[in-house]
Each structure stands twice: as structure tokens, then as C-alpha cells.
Amino acid sequence: MGLNLTIDQGNSSVKLAVWSGAKLVDEESAKELTRQQLAKFVDRFRPEKALCCSVTGNGERLTQWLMQHGVDARQVSPLMPLPIAIGYATPQTLGADRIAAAVGAWSLFPGECSLVVDMGTAVTYDVVDSTGRYLGGNIAPGIGMRLRSLHSFTARLPEIGGYGETPLFGNDTATAMRAGAVRGVVAEIAYYYSRLPEPGRLVLTGGWAKHVSEFLDIPCVVDKCLVTKGLLSILLYNEDK
Question: End-to-end alpha-carbon separation of the chain, Å?
Fold first, then answer.
């Protein structure tokens, strides 16, 4: 059995994973991916197929680089065969990362409704029902973006980080800003979860997932590799297509 490669290109980092069937062989993460780095990785493992997901607009370039190295490479698209159905008015505008995360949740919990929350530069909230249909979702500013916006668009609010003392209600300016950003996302999650069309799972991923999970009263699953697992599921689903 040949090896497969998945590439998850986010706004702040890129994750590469090599698979033998459903078994993870190796993985690497980096702030950015150069052609030389990718060539070195491909030469090391010699994958036969690859599936790429990029939110930065360089997905086509990645697939071209891979194909030049003899890899059968594709980008995630809502128009390709998927393990879930896409119920979105404009599927061509649906982000590949959102598709992959939704598929990742479905691969972990088939037959169950899921609220999938991906917390990176932006926060996305997506719903897959128990029939495996993607119903849609929302996009909101991420925690870091909220804090930077408060500093940038006001005259006196300071620049602070999202980690630190986070009371329910702030007791000074810094904690008030941090609690507003972090607990604001927590409140959004709780609201969307309460509005699911049927009982379901809460699945968190992204750089802020572990931190935010500590403030939730709802049972949740935190999986930092959810998008990667979704990419693998899509890749395997398309093997014979």
C-alpha cells in the first residue's frame, strides 16, 4: 500500500501528515512551507497521493509543486465526492478547512449530529446533522483578532494577550478585555450548541480550542488534528473514484 500525504495550510501554520491507510506515519508543522521544504518531505516519504487544504489561496501552487514531484495531488473542493453531503447555498464559496473539519467530526462520530468549532485567526461554527449533511455555519473574529481590534480601534485600550487571568467579569481593564474576548466565544459556543436541530456532540479544534474548553460547561472533544483527519477521510473516500 502506497503512502498518502495531507497538507493543512492555515493562516498561521501548516501541517503535513503522511499516512499508510488510516495509520499516521509521520507529521510536521511549520510557520510556513517553502518549495524546498515540501520537496525534502516528499523525497523522504515518496507519497503516491496528496490532498491539500489551504485558507491562504496557495492550494493550487501546493498541488502543482506536488505534481511536479510525481505526486497525484488534489485540493479539497465541495464539488468532489465527500463522505458528507453539502447543504450550502453557495458550495463553491465554502472554505476547504470548514469542509475538512466537518468531515473530521463525522469520521469521529458517524451517525451523530456535531457542532464543529474551529478556533484560529477566525472562529467558525459548523453543523453536521445525524444523516451526515452539512447544514451550514457562521464565521466570527477569533480571540486574538478581538483583542487586537479593541486595541487598534480605540484610543486607550491596551494591547494584551488572551492567556492569563480570565474572571467571569473583569476586575481591571486587562481582565475585562480578556474575559470579553474569551468568555464571549464561550457564550457563542453555548448559544449555538443550545440551538442544534438535534442532540449532538461539541467538537473543538484550532489553536485556541484547549484554552477555551477549560471555560465550557458543555462536554466537548478537543482534537487539534481534526482538519487533518478530515483530509485523510476525504482522500480515502476518493481512492476508488
Answer: 17
